[in-house]
């Protein structure tokens, strides 16, 4: 008789352990589902972006945004970028390039990305029309996009008159022979 009661007690213990394991697995699945659903908007847009070389060659104006997941300004601007994609995505290409992804290092060097977010604006022929570093309001991004679509010069926008690629860049003022190269990853 004693053997039967120990089997029953063991069975209850097994049930409790089984319920505990089921609870832990359910919680883990829920957490994984939430984390997958909460992928950052910039990351979602980056995954659906065209490759830079395709965007520059397809006859549409293009905006490159160099960003990082850890960049607070980039995250703050993400709703504006998502909205821009929804509003003008059929007339304009938006290519998001994460500076922490080694794949984009050649472009980071080519366009001298030294701060984020950095926006690089190209016309429909793939010609560089302007560069902007830092926070841009939704209105400014939309206005710049409209100018690109209408093939107007970004320098005609008062707020963007410093974006001409013909104007000096801050890095032109630095004697680079004495300093090490700076890129967005060197700050992390």
Automatic annotation (TrEMBL):
What Pfam families does the annotation carry? Thioredoxin
Recorded hits in PROSITE patterns, A to Z, give: THIOREDOXIN_2
Q: Which InterPro entries match?
A: Thioredoxin-like_sf, Thioredoxin_domain, TxlA/HCF164
Kindly list the residue ranges recorded as spanning the membrane: none
Which Gene3D superfamilies does the UniProt entry name for this protein? Glutaredoxin
A GO term, aspect molecular function: oxidoreductase activity, acting on a sulfur group of donors, disulfide as acceptor
Name of this protein: Thioredoxin-like protein TxlA
């Amino acid at each position: 008789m004693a053997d039967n009661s120990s089997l029953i007690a063991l069975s209850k213990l097994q049930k409790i352990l089984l319920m505990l394991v089921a609870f832990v697995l359910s919680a883990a699945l829920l957490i994984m589902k939430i984390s997958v659903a909460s992928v950052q908007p910039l990351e979602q847009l980056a995954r659906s972006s065209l490759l830079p070389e395709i965007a520059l060659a397809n006859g549409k104006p293009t905006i490159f945004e160099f960003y990082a997941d850890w960049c607070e300004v980039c995250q703050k601007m993400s709703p504006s970028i998502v909205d821009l994609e929804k509003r003008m995505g059929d007339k304009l290409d938006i290519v998001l390039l994460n500076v922490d992804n080694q794949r984009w290092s050649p472009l980071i060097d080519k366009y001298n990305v030294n701060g984020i977010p950095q926006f690089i604006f190209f016309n429909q022929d793939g010609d560089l029309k302007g560069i902007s570093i830092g926070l841009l309001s939704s209105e400014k991004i939309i206005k710049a996009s409209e100018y690109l679509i209408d093939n107007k010069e970004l320098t005609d926008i008062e707020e963007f008159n410093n974006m001409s690629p013909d104007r000096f860049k801050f890095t032109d003022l630095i004697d680079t022979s004495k300093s090490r190269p700076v890129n967005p990853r060197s700050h992390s």
